[in-house]
């Protein structure tokens, strides 16, 4: 042992001062990253971003309603984030033109084909806000091109594409954020902390819903823009892997009111119940793949569509937790969001941005009641963007990361299979095998899976 070290540790007096000194150094080291942090992210140490001034160049793919809404809500935050929208893409010229104009870009930065945008070396990250059937292909292509990806929910149209995205994120090590904005709300993270701290005991069942109503019975019916036609809209490409429908009035309806057709989305499951599953699964502290999923769906009120107007999911997880989730577009009274454990129950209120932990009577001596209130507005998309750019620069796990997303989207994809094929879906996460109640292996559903039930 070097003499110096021996000397330092020979008396209790010196040992104490050594410990104090070491502790001070440890505090200084752990505080160091905070000292260098700054609200202007461009001054944070760069992990993945090599561009000038550490600016992140973002390409936006899909500039319809939600893409435009992202562009608008991002606009006032771009400086703070040190992000520039450097390219936009849409296969409908009218949507592309207005996004190009809004973002102040030249026509060379506006693309009809996302693969051309991905060839741009200066683009660091992409935001995918296309129709759901393009989420998987655009995400995979983006990761292959070395881009970080923020993709709107649901993760993909079908389960197997979600597993491909999961594998690709793991192999490329790029940052992936799925666009379920509620996962950025601190209350779900607080509940996860309570669960992990053992306050609820083993989880037993969770519930939630997304329910709304509309007077004209016209949910997801959008006006057809008479200007749209195959000369300014790449209709064939838009249909992606779905069966090809020739351009017609019906095709125009499909383009604008795609939510009503199974070819392009899973209806309430992907559109509304994503917003329940991603944050509630995050709040369980340990998002799991489902072991069994059952789902029903009915379509007796809104008959002018393929998708259900009311749907109920039961999802069982290996830990024993069961989720009961409902969604409807023809009644506004939902189930309150709750997570029940053996020792306590948590109630979540989105509108109040509040989580309350209430011990079971039997465990009231052991567990204290708690309440978490967040005065900030609930479900702000900007918060998910802030987290995305922070993870690109500093590393860390995005709020709606790929591990959470793939589990939530597997539940939703199996729910669609259960509902539309009339089966119970058992899932083995190790082999990614789906079996029905008789133990028969079922291939994951895709565009051409024959459907048995359309109620
Ligand atoms: N997080 C939320 O709260 C929220 C809210 C609304 C919509 N969304 C999601 O946003 C996405 C878009 O929804 P929307 O209402 O804006 O639909 P939309 O039809 O208005 O817009 C989609 C746009 O994507 C374009 N597009 C489709 N495929 C493309 C491709 N391969 N390449 C380039 N452009 C392509 C279309 O031409 C269209 O302009 C959906 O996945 C939806 O689930 C999320």
Task: List the main descriptive attributes of the protein structure presented here.
single chain; 455 residues; alpha/beta; Rossmann fold; Dihydrodipicolinate Reductase, domain 2; 3 domains; 11-stranded mixed sheet; 6-stranded parallel sheet; 34% helix; 19% strand; disordered N terminus; binds nicotinamide-adenine-dinucleotide
What is the CATH homologous superfamily assignment of the largest domain? Dihydrodipicolinate Reductase, domain 2
User: What is the CATH domain class of the largest domain?
Assistant: Alpha Beta
Which regions are unreliable across 5 or more consecutive residues at pLDDT < 50?
Answer: 1-48
Total number of helices: 15
- CATH-assigned fold name of the largest domain: Dihydrodipicolinate Reductase, domain 2
Small-molecule binders here are: nicotinamide-adenine-dinucleotide
N-to-C span: 80 Å
Described by its quaternary structure, the protein is single chain
Number of domains: 3
- Global mean pLDDT: 90
Structural class: alpha/beta
Strand residue percentage: 15-25%
Overall helicity: 25-40%
Largest sheet: 11 strands, mixed
Principal-axis shape equals: globular
Q: Please tally the β strands and state the result.
A: 17
CA gyration radius, whole angstroms: 25 Å
**Strand order in the largest sheet:** 14-13-12-11-7-10-9-8-15-16-17
